[in-house]
């Protein structure tokens, strides 16, 4: 063996020892703990079988009618899943998604500094009404195919109403509650 191959072999052995020691030390320093339960349980909207509507049988409760009496504290808990991507504070920076302060009544795709996918105005109007937000959070990919939002959606009507009631509080002046006409049209 020549001197070059001895140096290369020595370097290879040293690198292997360093890698092994690094792995050993890191396993000693980090003790992973398995989480026993979810912090917030969120039921996602399931696709209805072909030929059936989502409300097979009894008609679904009106989300708009539920907002006024919805549990705002429950909405705040459910929205915790959103803060992985969105911020909620007034003047807050955008995250992976835009800041949601003042979302009810705001023009879609209008939060300054956020690069939208351009898909949110393909369905419904150009303003985030309670109805529009409800449809979006029920199943974002159905509401706006091609949206960057990867969240699966909220299945339970009561959870969506609670989220809408909570989002309503995130404003300098909360948006008016849905009118009787809007509820009847739902």
Fold and architecture overview:
The chain has 186 residues and is mainly α. It has a domain at 63-185: Cytochrome c-like domain (Cytochrome Bc1 Complex, Chain D, domain 2, Orthogonal Bundle), CATH 1.10.760.10. Helices cover 38% and strands 0% of the residues. The protein contains seven helices and no strands. α3 (72-78) packs across α6 (157-169). The longest helix has 27 residues, at 3-29. The radius of gyration is 25 Å and the shape is elongated. 22% of the residues are buried. Mean pLDDT is 85; it is low at 49-55.
Which terms would index this structure?
elongated, mainly alpha, Cytochrome Bc1 Complex, Chain D, domain 2, 186 residues
CATH topology title of the domain at 63-185 = Cytochrome Bc1 Complex, Chain D, domain 2
Order of helices and strands: HHHHHHH
Number of helices: 7
Low-confidence stretches: 49-55
* Overall SS class: mainly alpha
What is the H level of CATH, i.e. the homologous superfamily of the domain at 63-185? Answer: Cytochrome c-like domain
Helix fraction by DSSP (H/I, runs of at least 4): 25-40%
| Shape estimate | elongated
What's the end-to-end separation, in Å? 84 Å
CATH architecture of the domain at 63-185: Orthogonal Bundle
Strand content: under 5%
Radius of gyration (CA) equals 25 Å
Tell me the total number of β-strands: 0
Average pLDDT value? 85
CATH class of the domain at 63-185: Mainly Alpha
The biggest beta sheet, please? Answer: none
């Amino acid at each position: 063996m020549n001197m070059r191959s001895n140096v290369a072999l020595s370097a290879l052995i040293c690198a292997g020892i360093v890698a092994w020691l690094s792995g050993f030390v890191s396993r000693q320093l980090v003790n992973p703990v398995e989480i026993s339960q979810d912090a917030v349980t969120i039921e996602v909207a399931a696709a209805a079988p072909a030929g059936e509507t989502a409300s097979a049988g009894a008609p679904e409760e009106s989300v708009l009618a539920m907002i006024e009496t919805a549990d705002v504290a429950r909405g705040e808990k459910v929205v915790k899943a959103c803060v992985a991507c969105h911020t909620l504070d007034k003047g807050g920076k955008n995250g992976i998604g835009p800041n949601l302060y003042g979302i009810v009544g705001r023009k879609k795709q209008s939060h300054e500094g956020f690069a939208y996918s351009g898909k949110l105005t393909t369905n419904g109007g150009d303003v985030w009404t309670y109805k529009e937000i409800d449809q979006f959070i029920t199943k974002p990919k159905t509401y706006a195919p091609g949206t960057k939002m990867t969240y699966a959606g909220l299945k339970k009507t009561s959870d969506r109403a609670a989220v809408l009631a909570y989002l309503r509080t995130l404003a300098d002046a909360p948006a008016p509650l849905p009118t009787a006409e809007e509820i009847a049209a739902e």
